[in-house]
Structures are given as C-alpha cells and as structure tokens.
Specification:
This protein has about 100 residues and is α+β, with helices and mostly antiparallel strands. About 35% of the residues lie in helices and about 40% in strands. It has a single domain, classed as Translation Initiation Factor IF3.
C-alpha cells in the first residue's frame, strides 16, 4: 500500500474512494510513567514515551491501511497524523487520508 502526504500520485490518474482513518490511545505502565517523570529533573529524551508514540503511530497506520484495503484501494494520499494528550502518560494518535484507486 502506497502512503503519501501529497494529494496526488505523480504520473498516475486516481479515483478517490473515501476518507480512511486509524486511531489508538496508548499509555505506559505506572512504573515507566514514574521513571519518565524522574527524567524531567535531568532533561533529555524520554525514550519510553518516544517508544510509546512510535508504537501508537504504527498501530494507527495499520488500522488506516486495513480500512483502505477493505475498500480495494491502491494507495492513501494526503496522509496526516494528529495527536492529543488524553491524560498524564496516555496519548491518542490519529492518522487519516484519502483512499484512492488507480485509473486505467
């Protein structure tokens, strides 16, 4: 499945099928959240949160791709990600785009 963050596929004529999306709310365990809080005293990257968000993006993307494949899409264009903090240590990741099929 081709995923692009532009609204067209260079050299291809496409037909828009539908908006597709994927979403996930992910959190870390209390222990990891506590350790991440300790990191704020010394600074630097909070790797457990980076890992959490990477996992969440991958899962949300897979859900979007699954929805596009169910429609018979060849690609998803204009892919966008959004995130929101739900509560301390938990984040929602949403990905969305337009499922398209190649013409001809």
């Amino acid at each position: 499945m081709l995923l692009l963050n532009i609204d067209h596929i260079p050299g291809r004529e496409i037909e828009a099928l539908a908006l597709v999306k994927g979403s996930v709310v992910q959190c870390k365990s209390l222990g990891k959240d506590f350790m991440a809080g300790m990191k704020t005293f010394v600074g630097g990257e909070i790797e457990s949160y980076t890992d959490m968000l990477t996992e969440a993006r991958q899962l949300a993307t897979k859900r979007m791709v699954d929805e596009a494949e169910a429609l018979g899409a060849d690609a998803v264009v204009n892919v966008r990600y959004a995130s929101a903090s739900i509560m301390q240590g938990a984040a929602e990741i949403t990905v969305y785009g337009t499922a398209v099929k190649y013409k001809g």
